[in-house]
């Protein structure tokens, strides 16, 4: 198949920010793209060749969209997986596969997959409804504290909560869920694995999510992670095992904990470009977005090494600000060395809404980290 | 003015490949863009917010397009400069200015500008018509060989020719033109100067255009140029002088000769992103396209240094091939380290038509140069 011709069509389910960033690379390679998204204002509405408005969870909509393309991918997990399976049977190349997505879509089956394939992960229990957790506690099968996770997407809420007592528990929605042992960890790490249909595989360097000391929120993604080589190698090999067991085609972002005893436990995976890989646009020889295209089109994989060190800061809406967004002091961060803001184009801000990200690159990771702190202190995402 | 809001509109005259590459950065910063181009198939038709089909040389068309935007720029010199001047008077910020563009648009006035401002350039003569050159030769005011250049754009032809005898001369179109002394040179160099309205100025590293030993055609653009530091400094200072004399706002690509006696002579300038700066997308901290946006919006300038060395190869249509384009062996170059093809999306190839470019980056310039040679030997732009 000649990808570099107008006879070839790549379909992307989801027209969000990840899709928007991927479209830069499809345009660079002049690959014809069709995007499906429910919102007429989706960031990908520009830059794709054909934009279709439609429900990603509706079987017929996804079938009708998918059957006109040669290769179909997604930039969001919450799509109709039955439709993907039908399309695969009809000869459309769906990457990553419907089987992998089905396993990942449900956090309970995702965890079972790890257990079945001897992939290290925190111990867990599975519940058809949150209300059943109570009983497990009563019977001594579970004790506080633990981490509660909704098994599925698609309800209004964060989906993850640390439960320390009964009152934490009663606030939760009554949905299919898992509980996980609360693991004290030194670091939260991530590795993006790239694998094409031929089975060629490469990993990006291990990155580190640095947490805010009080807010317990990821503040910086740092590449490379400031960890010993032996830990990095262990994390890489766990990530490679996960991708191999999935026979994955595409990017797989593997989030992991480095425990206090230096074990590596898989937290969860995302079968697509990922926030932990945004630094790659500026820092890597091949950005994660170009790499995703290489993977799913069966092209040779690009170099995953870094030209320079990178730090990524998420831009989220400030507390107490709701309304038309203003990026206060953005000019000031543009004056800092190696700083690139990515503005997602959402017109309205609200507290903690993800509005963009900023990448800071430098030959010296310590300098990049310092400038990242300045960036964070300087720019404010507020309302008019 | 808040550039990062939907109230702000950036207008771009010309929707070609340069505009297309600039739109990646306007999208990254979420800057609203309006593009005017005569072709419904222009590369920028995607990725801009508003696309208007219209003649760039028509006064009323440019006025009507320009009066709806806050800042107006161009990605091609061949636009109606009277309209730009009117728009400036009406309060539209036009960068680079109409005055600069008017001087540059005509190669005779461009050369006079250099002479008037003591900018080193090859000796030249000015002719209202090519047919007048004959007489100058007869009177001994000019002798073979010399370089003939059309003063203006907009006729079918290359615009530059080395004239060695009468028969070379008679083949030329009878238009306003200049003749230049033929200067034997060691190297053809270029420096891109970035300057914003506040007068902040930065230069990109000096690049070298490496010529094919026989075809006398630029084969590689190499950054940094493999020349002594003293020559690089001289080239930089000449380029800075040109930008300062123009009181330029925006990018100015200054092409220069390093003569056999190590003098630097300005050949010509382009007031926009330039082929000699394409390497910057992959190699520089700030690509020339992002830098152009920073310049014309009065934002702080980005770091012009390189993360890694870069070599750029133009992809042109192979001889004896006309028709639907095929990029033969593109998969093979994608397997090479640090190689990024940029495909411009023209559906038809013809001999020597510029169809794209390939950037090769590496920590070691010698390795990048070697891979560039492999790229050139491998990929072929042919017809089906």
Automatic annotation (TrEMBL), chains A, B:
It catalyses: 5-amino-1-(5-phospho-beta-D-ribosyl)imidazole + hydrogencarbonate + ATP = 5-carboxyamino-1-(5-phospho-D-ribosyl)imidazole + ADP + phosphate + 2 H(+). It comes from the Bacteria. Keywords: ATP-binding, Decarboxylase, Ligase, Lyase, Nucleotide-binding, Purine biosynthesis. Pfam families: ATP-grasp, PurK_C, RS_preATP-grasp-like. ATP binds at residues 107, 149, 180-183, 188, 267-268. Residues 111-297 form the ATP-grasp domain. This is N5-carboxyaminoimidazole ribonucleotide synthase. It comes from Winogradskyella thalassocola.
